[in-house]
Design a protein that fits this description.
It holds the Pfam family WGR. It comes from Roseovarius gahaiensis. InterPro entries: WGR_dom_sf, WGR_domain, YehF/YfeS-like_WGR. This is WGR domain-containing protein. Strands 4-3-2-1-5 form a 5-stranded antiparallel β-sheet, covered by helices on one side. The chain is elongated, with a radius of gyration of 13 Å. Helix content is about 20%, strand content about 40%. It has about 80 residues and is an alpha+beta fold. The protein has 1 helix and 5 strands, in the order E-E-E-E-H-E. The longest helix has 17 residues.
């Protein structure tokens, strides 16, 4: 799971991307985004192989970084502390 945070002064927000495997032999890329301290919106895209899922996840990460999001290890909305 990769979590990115945008430290905008008025409304900090997060963007999270996770690649997973399900019981049907498909790979999924789960994207979640929203304001810190609130539940986010999420979207799921399915892929038939890991390579396509990883390429899609990387593409979404690059787009988020281009919008000002930065990689973080902080716990943000919707994520449970270990």
């Amino acid at each position: 799971m990769i979590t990115l945070v945008h430290h905008h002064a008025e409304r900090p927000s997060f963007y999270r991307v996770d690649v997973g495997y399900n019981l049907f032999g498909e790979y999924s890329v789960v994207r979640e985004w929203g304001g810190n301290g609130r539940n986010g919106v999420h979207r799921i895209a399915w892929f038939s192989n890991l390579r396509d899922a990883a390429v899609a996840a990387d593409r979404w990460n690059v787009r988020a970084c281009a919008k000002g999001y930065e990689l973080t290890d902080r716990v943000v909305a919707g994520e449970h502390a270990p």
